[in-house]
Hints:
Elements lengths: L1 E3 L5 H5 L8 E4 L2 E6 L2 E9 L2 E4 L3 H11 L6 H10 L3 H10 L9 H11 L4 H15 L28 H13 L3 H7 L2 H9 L6 H11 L10 H10 L13 H13 L1
Antiparallel strand pairs: 1-5, 2-3, 3-4, 4-5
Helix pairs in contact: 4-12, 5-6, 5-10, 9-10
The structure holds a DNA duplex.
Amino acid sequence: xxxxxxxxxxxxxxxxxxxxxxxxxxxxxxxxxxxxxxxxxxxxxxxxxxxxxxxxxxxxxxxxxxxxxxxxxxxxxxxxxxxxxxxxxxxxxxxxxxxxxxxxxxxxxxxxxxxxxxxxxxxxxxxxxxxxxxxxxxxxxxxxxxxxxxxxxxxxxxxxxxxxxxxxxxxxxxxxxxxxxxxxxxxxxxxxxxxxxxxxxxxxxxxxxxxxxxxxxxxxxxxxxxxxxxxxxxxxxxxxxxxxxxxxxxxxxxxxxxx
DNA sequence: TCACAGGCTAGAG
DNA sequence: CTCTAGCCTGTG
Length: 259
């Protein structure tokens, strides 16, 4: 099916650092594993995209996944209203980034792996975890869908994070209501709850809030963002001005900085 | 060779 | 409270 989608660039979103399993086929094409399916999206230009799914699937799954109900035009207006030239440049370079609505569990595990780590290795580990679970369509293993002992296998490249994954899988397996509870908490409460778990610090907690729970006010600060804030916003970043959208703004700044 | 990569934990001060 | 060594491991 063909669909018109504004503020969406497959390459920018794939490289924005929020998802680690998107496969970039070429400049205009990506394949996305989610919901136990694999969706291929091809950009046709002029905000038109070809998606290999049915209308029903699009309505019930992918529209939500791609965050199509959020008004990114409004965010763009806010960017220009700020008269922050650096941010405006960043926005013009990365305005095709959308904050996806990915599966919470996959986001939790992915960002546990991401700490003090580089992207190729993160992707390799996540793929290895999925392969070890051996589910249809390389689906991401839910709690109890994988033998936690495989995390000790050095070939997964998890390093010291293997303990964090083991404990997280065991905890979520024994507390099936925990994920549901996280979803109904406010940003502050969800963040505090996440921080109680081993292996989740402030940065990872904010990434999970932003990318797994869609709390757009979350503003993850990693080494790059820390440097960029010092470089361009020595007097402090105006979180109040971007209230409720800080997370998207962070994505524009981050993407601009690493490219 | 060695610091670093999209940090966190635990322990010291 | 703040500060930081050490953690796995591939990369340059």
